[in-house]
Amino acid sequence: MPIIDAHIHYGDDAPELLALLAEFDLRLHNINVAQDSHGGWRTDADRYCSLAQQHPQRFAWCTSFDLPAVDDPSFDSTQYVRDVLAGLEQDFAAGAVACKVWKNIGMEVRYPDGRFFHVDDPLLAPIFAWLAERGFPLLAHIAEPLDCWLPLREGSPHYGYYSRNPEWHMYTRPDYPSHGELMAARNRVLEQHPSLRFIGAHLASLEYDVDVLVETLDRYPNLAVDTSARLGDLAAQDSAKVRDFVTKYQDRILFGTDVVMRTPPSSLPPEERAQIIDALRTVYTTHFAYFESKGALTVRGQETVGLGLSQGVLEKLYRTNAEQWYPRL
Q1: Domain assignment present for 133
Q2: Which stretch of DSSP H or E encloses residue 269?
Q3: Structural domain of residue 171, as residue ranges?
Q4: Residue 293 and residue 175: Cα distance in Å, rounded?
Q5: For site-directed labelling of 153, which of 46, 294, 302, 320 has its Cα 20 to 30 A away?
């Protein structure tokens, strides 16, 4: 069946990659990440846009906007909103599917007095209202896995990431917002913009227990979630419970991997290119085995049991939910 990877960062069209996408009948929704207030992400945006225009059956793209320089005394909030909306209008006219905000909102950007700039800040309200009015979805990576605020624990699906990226590990940084504070800010946006299609990246940062995620989905009908980079968290939970969760919320869960392209395969010699493509193939076959099979398997080094989802649920997870929540896909 056709499959949409609704959350990936893979801006390349090497022949071997296109062949893999054709083999799995895959379409990639490339996600932009704005990491500063100076437009550095536009290089990726231009590449993603070009790929979508050249290979519309295989690629789509999600735009973003520059971070607000609220720590700059000369920052003009009115002009900032105007510039963001003008950029969004241009990107959606060029075929963008959605808009993304990242975890640096809430965990990095600060006002001059040290207060963190959160996703429910009034500055962003007219931007979210603009998206809602026009039916454009918001993909939001707010906060981090709960393990971000806990001691490093070998065996955790996130041990490797926080070992390599200690700047994002909050356990020893009590001056930063808590997981609960970030979730509360996200929830206020859901409440303030009930008509906004809101996709919570990475299981909405509630990956640690699908029961907690159930409570949030029940409270906010305008929220969907994607599975990107959280396969290990699902596999660590009881398979029967996860199967029941995916089946019950089968209209609100989108398949995604969050694979990041470090080096374009097309720039590599043939042997290295083949290794990169083989690694990507393994990512997909592992995901498919977990969702489709009923037997024992290994996911990220841990033993689990496949969910064995029905064909109807798989079709929603793999494709139609993405088309419903991202209507331009």
Answers
A1: yes
A2: none
A3: 3-264+310-325
A4: 44
A5: 294
